[in-house]
Amino acid sequence: MGLFSKAKTTRDDLKDEAIPPMEWKDNPETSANILSGLTFAWMQPMFSRASYLRKRGKYLQQEDLVPIAEMDKSEHVENLFDAAYNSYVPKAKKRKTDEGGQAKEKDTPEE
């Protein structure tokens, strides 16, 4: 053994390593610029994290995932839906008219 020899590490040694969960300051999707939003570059930290964990025989956990944006949470979507549903006014059905502008009689099947 030389002076600078390192002990070999195996995947099993790396599996036992405690890795803290990923922490997000805020939702990167909502703070991403237009180019990042179009190319999903804002997801790069999570992809890097997945690669790092996979090399150690681990996988992403729920705590590592991007937090849900406020605008995507069910409470917000429910409020938007309720507002739209409550303001909905059904349109009156158009009556079929003939060439003279008179309402056509409904065709009734002959018995």
Give a nutshell description of this structure:
The protein has 111 residues and is an all-alpha fold.
Description:
This protein has about 110 residues and is mostly helical. Helix content is about 35%, strand content about 0%. The chain has five helices and no strands. The protein starts with 10 loop residues before the first helix and ends in a 25-residue tail after the last helix.
Write the layout of secondary structure elements.
Layout: H1 11-15, H2 28-31, H3 34-39, H4 44-55, H5 74-86
Principal-axes geometry comes out as: elongated
Stretches with pLDDT under 50, minimum 5 residues: none
> What share of the residues does DSSP label as strand, in percent?
under 5%
Number of helices: 5
Could you give a short account of the major beta sheet?
none
Radius of gyration: 30 Å
